[in-house]
Amino acid sequence: MLNNSKPLSDIERIQTVVKMIPAGQVSTYGRIADYAGLLHKARYVSYALAQASHDSLPWHRVINSQGKIAIAKGNPSYFKQIELLRLEAIQVNHGRVNLKQYLWHPDAATLIFSLSF
DNA sequence: CTACTGACCTAAT
DNA sequence: GATTAGGCCAGTA
Hints:
By secondary structure, the protein is mainly α. About 45% of the residues lie in helices and about 5% in strands. The protein starts with 9 loop residues before the first helix and ends with a helix. The protein binds a DNA duplex through helix 2, helix 3, strand 2 and helix 4.
């Protein structure tokens, strides 16, 4: 056996992909789901992040497809996310990020490799 | 089992 | 830009 570990769970696959997002770049819920092999399960990504929104993974680098912060304004995490993004030199205006500028374009082979464990 | 809820997405308006 | 509608799907009550 080349690999005797059990397959990654959906949540583990999502977290693996999120960890691959480089500092200074962002991705979206839908894209993360696609990269993790979970087509059309964008909503599940938000659940997976909420489960582990500790320091363990860069949850702040995940925003919605419109480039906006997905958390409701007024929620402390909303401001926390903006703060974390700005620490990485990502500009946030009116709760919005320029996807053209900061969107992460992962390498397919690297993705497959990272998810194979 | 059904009903409701979301840190969602796309297309249409 | 903003809002709506329909689709999506796991979790929860």
